[in-house]
Amino acid sequence: MRPVTAEIITIGDEILFGQITDTNTQWIGAELSAIGVRTVRKSSVGDQRAAILSILSEAEQRADIVILTGGLGPTKDDITKTTLCEYFNTGQAIHPEALVFVTEFFQKRGRELTEINKLQASLPLNATYLPNTRGTAPGMWFYERGTVFVSLPGVPHEMKGLMTDEVLPRIKSTFPLPVIHHKMLRTIGIGESFLAERIEAWEDALPSHIKLAYLPSMGMVKLRLTATGESLEVLQAEVNAEIAKVLPLISTYVYGYDGDEIEDVVARLLRESGHSLSIAESCTGGYLSHLITKIPGSSAYFQAGVVSYSNAAKMNTLDVQSATLENYGAVSEPTIREMAEGVRERFGTTFGLATSGIAGPDGGTTEKPVGTIWIALASPEQTITKKLTLGGDRLQNIHQTALSLLNLLRKVLVGLPLD
């Protein structure tokens, strides 16, 4: 079956200027993929007639479906509608059904329907009217020269309503669509290139209709398997079979699937085991505790978090010895050990976690440069310490430290070997 392709175009100077974040294309791409449409390109253009005309011409050559968002407001800077009329060489007129809707919209809110707002009901003559039940700017559907064009408001909740109510059902009835199935393996603690080397033979042997993509982020790599065919059940079985083949190669690093975050997995393991947790943070400043407590139900296992930023706080709250700080400093293996053990003993938890380091951008020395971090996990059986040598900026170092400690706790909870 021939793939059905789409291009998504956002229109608006505010997007190019960085004044708003474009979330529309991500959402539309995911919804299109779910029904079997493959997005081949995403573009953004400003409120410029020539730029819009140019990108429409290019998109028409690349895709079966061209979806535009933005530029449908009633003011002079919103030129999408008039530019579409020029592109299709057509005029526009008041659409009776759209006029009734916009009139009622304002009447229900006790507002006057001005001449400017009345223009919201004016549509290109070749457009199919798509009622927008969440705003005044209607959507428009065009079928020209074998390509579907869709124009939608840029306001996210209005766009999503039109896509769900009007556009996606029309696409499904217009095109014979293949099935696209995605499955994500989430890994942590291994770099993209090392991961690729481990699974190279498996990747090379994948069937032609199953594609693998590497999606790296800070401290993690997601492996996305995308299968295309005609039966969802068949594709799911095939992808699961491929996962069963690759897992023995990378099982130590796989912490979850699809939407799992590392903190979600750790939370589930703590609930299932009945263990409890307390945390002492210095360089992470409470960020690790935030990751833990943002999970609903975390009070079942999380007892306390201490931000012991100063040496005095480390001594007074965690019973870190003054001699330890004087002889080794706050960023050291002896100090982090005492922090983890101290927070565990103070709050009577199964595990005590601790962080201390130089997150940057300053504060480093020749012996302890920026990015030098110590983490520790104290349990009834042992205390595990680990030195991290990171190279990111302050926020990256804080985030990477928290992920490393969560992964250490995950390994202990499931009985995996430690590095």
Rough outline: elongated
Annotation field: number of helices? 16
In the predicted model, the low-confidence regions spanning at least 5 consecutive residues are none
In the sheet with the most strands, the strands line up as 2-1-3-8-7-6
Spatial separation of the terminal alpha carbons:
47 Å
The average pLDDT is 95
CATH class of the largest domain: Alpha Beta
Strand percentage: 25-35%
Radius of gyration: 28 Å
Number of domains: 3
What is the fold-level CATH name, i.e. the topology of the largest domain?
Answer: Molybdenum Cofactor Biosythetic Enzyme, Chain A
| Largest sheet entry | 6 strands, mixed
User: Which class do the helix and strand fractions yield?
Assistant: alpha/beta
Helix content: 40-55%
Give the full name of the CATH homologous superfamily of the largest domain.
MoaB/Mog-like domain
Tally of extended strands?
17
Task: Write a structural description.
The chain has three domains: 4-174, 3-Layer(aba) Sandwich (Molybdenum Cofactor Biosythetic Enzyme, Chain A); 179-257, Alpha-Beta Plaits, CATH 3.30.70.2860; 262-414, Maf protein, CATH 3.90.950.20. Helix content is 42%, strand content 26%. The protein is built from 16 helices and 17 strands. It has helices at 13-16, 24-34, 49-62, 80-88, 96-108, 115-118, 156-174, 192-198, 200-204, 232-250, 262-273, 287-293, 311-318, 322-328, 333-347, 394-414; strands at residues 4-11, 37-45, 65-69, 92-94, 122-124, 128-130, 139-144, 147-152, 179-188, 210-217, 220-229, 254-257, 277-281, 302-307, 351-357, 372-378, 383-389. Helix 2 runs parallel beside helix 7, helix 3 packs across helix 4 and helix 11 (262-273) runs parallel beside helix 16. The two termini are 47 Å apart. Residues 7-173 form the MoaB/Mog domain. Belongs to the CinA family.
